[in-house]
User: Which sequence fits this backbone?
């Protein structure tokens, strides 16, 4: 099963929970791409702590976006590293960049941006444009592209 999952996706995180304590089985599982191996019996508290710690590790690993050789974004630190200079982002800039990066090369509508950044609080198009302008100043204009009348996308 592990081999089949790995054939289809290298990005899928695989956690095995098993009674098997054989070293050979563990080594085989790790060689086939298991990310975490948990031996039963395990208390619910220990399982949840282990799982939570692993999720935090995954989140930290996936929160760095490389836009070019000279620009990377560290979402968990609210930071853009541009030509080895740290540029801080405010909360809304980070939320917008997270939304755009999860949908890279896809257009995100003004309505989706409004909903994801402000929730039910209505926001004007000029507020979104101002936020995008500020983010472009930090990243560079070529990374956040306007799709006229629709929204924005990250290139």
Assistant:
């Amino acid at each position: 099963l592990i081999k089949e999952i790995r054939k289809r996706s290298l990005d899928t995180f695989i956690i095995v929970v098993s009674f098997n304590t054989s070293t050979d089985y563990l080594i085989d599982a790790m060689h086939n791409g298991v990310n975490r191996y948990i031996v039963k019996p395990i208390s619910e508290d220990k399982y949840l702590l282990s799982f939570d710690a692993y999720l935090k590790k995954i989140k930290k690993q996936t929160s760095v976006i490389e836009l070019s050789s000279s620009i990377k974004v560290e979402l968990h630190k609210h930071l853009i590293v541009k030509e080895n200079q740290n540029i801080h982002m405010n909360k809304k800039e980070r939320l917008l960049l997270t939304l755009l990066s999860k949908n890279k090369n896809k257009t995100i509508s003004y309505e989706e941006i409004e909903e994801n950044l402000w929730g039910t609080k209505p926001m004007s198009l000029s507020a979104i444009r101002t936020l995008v302008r500020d983010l472009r100043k930090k990243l560079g204009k070529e990374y956040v592209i306007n799709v006229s009348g629709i929204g924005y996308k990250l290139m």
